[in-house]
Amino acid sequence: MQIFFSCLQACVCHAYQMARANGIPDEQIVVMMYDDISSNKENPHPGEIINEPNGSNVYRGVLKDYTKRDVSVKNFLAVLRGDEAGVTKRPGGPNKVLKSGGNDSIFIYLSGHGGQGVFVFPEEYVSSPCVSTCWHYKRDVKMPTVLKGMFYAVMCNIADGDLCRKLFFGINDRASAKKHTRQVSSWPVTPENMLLFVYGVSASTPLEFSYACYYDHDRCTFLSNEFTSHWISHSEMIKDLFLFKQSDLTRTTFKDQFVHLKTKVRKSTPCQYGNIELSRLFISDILGCSESRPQTLHAGGATSARLSDLTPSHDVPLIIQQNKIRKEKDPVKKRALERDYHKLQQTRRRIGNAVQDITRQAGLERGSRRATERHLLTRLDEMRDVAEHFRRTFSEWHGEQDDCCILSHMHVFVGLIDSGVKAARIKTAITQVHMRKEHYYFST
Prior knowledge:
It is a single chain. It is built from 16 helices and twelve strands. By secondary structure, the chain is an alpha/beta fold. A six-stranded mixed β-sheet has the order 2-1-3-7-8-11, with helices on both faces. Strands 4-5-6 form a three-stranded antiparallel β-sheet, with helices on both faces. A hairpin with a 4-residue loop joins β9 and β10. α12 (380-393) packs parallel to α15 (423-435).
């Protein structure tokens, strides 16, 4: 059994602590996170990260297998392939990768920013076809017998379902896409997929946003997201109930947990993908189960708290800045924060204008339904090509705050591709619009 955690850091740290409490040793866990929160000058509690109101410090003891620039698409894919030679790291520490054998299980938890068909790393995107290739590599080259995989995806935009749908078995045609969006999501065992069984859960459908929660006024940030909060709360709750002989991880299936998440998560729609038969496995079969639970993880007693401050992920940067302005008493600092807020709003308008101009340049009229309505993503390779070209061309707009806005516009490119516009034509439009970028810098 191996576990791989990646991206939004407080959630990843908490997931790591849960796995360790369940008896999974560090040797079987790989953690990838940027690691710039605990020592950040804006963190009023250096060395601490919490994931819930009044929660315990989930940063203490967490693994740091891949941090800073080592959090890259290249390393992520190498970890999935079990390819130590393919890892590029700064000196220090082993090139830790998944070493699962044929009869082992893998659990992957992803939390971060995303858009249709892409998952955002600090300096680049990874697309679902790339990840799917890694699974097929493990199936064809590494794994002589059956491998069980569990994949939980929580992303800050409309990405989850598209990534999962393509990730597991390469579902890429329109009929299959519509079928699986209705959650009729089991694949027959065929020679192409019989050696690889993967079950996945996403926080939302491909056409929805996920939601942040628990705004902390002291730290001036959101502590978690709706899906992860309910997932970890449920996992910890059923383990605590074991102390009263009511339930435990050895008698609760992933199907039971999915039903719970469907009931509790209100702002988005959790989806399941892949081999649904695997949801019949007990949680302890994948995530382990120790006899006792360290009380430190429950020191805050907040996992049963009512979720608060639910906010669409793309609005998070604006809400944080608004709250900082309200909190600041120093008039000079307050004006500086207001300027930053104005700049953030202005950048968002410029991004929106640029995307509209790209749409017109590519051949669709402004306001066209094709350019505004949301579509299921079916031509993933073309979308990856377009998204990466936009990222490289408009590189000045790829700070974390800008990413949330940019990714919320990805559906426009999906609409162009779905209407029959070739990727090459869209890329040309992106380049031409960027050449007139002065318009976006000086207009408001």
